[in-house]
Design goal:
CATH architecture of the largest domain in chain B: 2-Layer Sandwich
CATH architecture of the largest domain in chain A: Roll
Number of helices of chain B: 12
Helix content of chain A: 25-40%
Mean pLDDT of chain B: 96
Strand order of the largest sheet of chain B: 4-5-10-6-7
Radius of gyration of chain B: 19 Å
Number of strands of chain A: 5
Shape of chain A: elongated
Oligomer: heterodimer
CATH superfamily of the largest domain in chain A: Beta-grasp domain
Distance between the termini of chain A: 57 Å
Largest sheet of chain A: 5 strands, mixed
Strand order of the largest sheet of chain A: 2-1-5-3-4
Largest interface: A-B, 34 and 32 residues
Strand content of chain B: 15-25%
CATH topology of the largest domain in chain B: Uridine Diphospho-n-acetylenolpyruvylglucosamine Reductase, domain 3
Largest sheet of chain B: 5 strands, antiparallel
Chain lengths: 162, 285
């Protein structure tokens, strides 16, 4: 078959990564193995669990359903972009305070999905939160505290205590 | 769970894409990738070449005219969902899109990709049947138009010939008084439909009804007898009851992992009833 390669340049969390890769490399594997940003988790690798969700040019996307070559020239954000040094992002603070995770495997995907969701919907209803979370599977928590954490994060991002 | 090797081409123009597809009969076009990439990851498909359509800007975008709208095949589902002008005249599309996967998949997934893939439980093919959409397709040999009733053939199969691409979807403007309804049952929000119904009704020109069902057997189908019953009964409650019975009788669902056939048949009727009632209530009097 084809042994072809492509050289791509991708901006992840403000840093440029130029790599020569095979076209069948998934973007999720590029992020983890080439950029060595292992905060993006890979769960199902067929677009069901949402653990690998990143922001692609500002929009939430499943990185296991994109080829890395397709991200050439794109601006990506991963979970590593949230905290500023030791200072947690309000989403992270909210998940910490409301116990919005247990094993944490699904959390990076949830936080990146919620970052985009709360930017568009700063004051969401519970129904809106649940609909926005529908593409991220968590098998530990039963979602109750995740929903609480998202509501709390929305309040923190609006500059209110909840 | 990793794609097999393939040659990758990402042409910038439709002409180049069509030439590549003509020269490589087993090449697969890649639209939003929300169905094809999982199939690659599972190695259910082994195309020697992927022709990525994502750089062809001319294939994306929505143009709304006086009599019709044209949706470029590569328009992202999320962009269509947020198009206020589309929502005003064709609210059925927006209502159905909220059931298509999740925000993350709609960011990438395209209108045309979903139609050309034709999953038998997908929402958009049924919506296009209900809206009397026409598909514009092109190959290196030229272009043609295909009515949606002829486009969706069976499971994962459309009227597209090898080397042909769906380039845009034409939606005639519905009558002014038209009412729309969409109802779906899925195991979880965003899953493929166990059963869903898309309905358009109007009193214009002696009455007009479209009832399209999905989640059944080999793909979306219009329930023609149910449509006739709705119009002939003047959209009354009695007419809805006759239409729903006809719709449920017409579908031929199959047993699978997600639901037995008898259940789908029953739910198809319930979804048709809900969508009909909503559409009739929304019809301007």
């Amino acid at each position: 078959m084809s042994g072809e390669t492509r050289t791509i340049r991708v901006t992840i969390n403000g840093r440029d990564y130029e790599r020569t890769i095979a076209p069948n490399l998934l973007l999720s594997d590029f992020i983890r193995h080439e950029a060595e940003l292992t905060g993006t988790h890979v769960g199902c690798e067929h677009g069901v669990c949402g653990a690998c969700t990143i922001l692609h040019d500002g929009r939430p996307a499943r990185s296991c359903l994109m080829l890395a070559v397709q991200a050439n020239g794109a601006r990506l954000e991963t979970i590593e972009s949230l905290a500023n040094g030791e200072a947690l992002h309000p989403l992270q603070t909210a998940f910490w305070e409301k116990h919005g995770l247990q094993c944490g495997y699904c959390t990076p995907g949830i936080l990146m999905t919620m970052k985009a969701f709360l930017a568009e919907t700063p004051k969401p209803s519970e129904a809106q939160i649940r609909e926005a979370l529908s593409g991220n599977l968590c098998r530990c928590t039963g979602y109750q505290q995740i929903v609480e954490a998202v509501r709390h994060a929305a309040a923190l991002l609006r500059g209110e205590a909840s | 769970m990793k794609p097999p090797p393939f040659a990758y081409r990402d042409p910038a123009t439709l002409g180049e894409a069509l030439a590549l597809l003509a020269a490589n009969v087993d090449a697969r076009p890649l639209a939003g990738g929300q169905s094809l990439v999982p199939m690659l990851n599972f190695r259910l498909v082994h195309p020697p070449m992927i022709v990525d359509l994502n750089r062809i800007g001319a294939l994306a975008g929505i143009v709304i005219g006086a009599d019709a709208a044209t949706i470029g095949a590569m328009t992202r589902q999320r962009d269509a969902e947020r198009d206020m002008d589309l929502a005003r005249a064709w609210p059925l599309i927006i209502e159905a899109l909220r059931h298509v996967g999740h925000i993350q998949t709609r960011s990438r997934g395209t209108i045309g990709g979903s139609l050309a893939h034709n999953d038998p439980a997908a929402e958009l093919p049924a919506v296009m049947l209900a809206l009397d959409a026409t598909m514009s397709v092109q190959s290196a040999r030229g272009g043609r138009k295909i009515a949606s009733a002829d486009f969706f053939v069976s499971t994962l199969t459309t009227a597209l010939d090898p080397g042909e691409l769906l380039v845009s979807i034409d939606l005639p403007r519905p009558p002014r008084d038209a009412g729309f309804g969409f109802a779906e049952l899925a195991r979880r929000h965003g899953d493929f439909a166990l059963a869903a119904a898309a309905v358009v009704v109007s009193r214009a020109g002696g009455g007009h009804a479209r009832i399209a069902l999905t989640g059944m057997g080999d793909g979306p189908r219009r329930a023609l007898e149910a449509e006739a019953a709705l119009v002939e009964g003047g959209f009354s409650d009695a007419a809805i009851a006759v239409a729903v019975a006809a719709a449920s009788a017409a579908v031929k669902p199959i047993d699978d992992l997600h639901a037995p056939a008898w259940y789908r048949k029953k739910v198809a009727g319930v979804m048709a009833a809900r969508a009909c009632r909503d559409a009739i209530a929304r019809m301007a009097s």
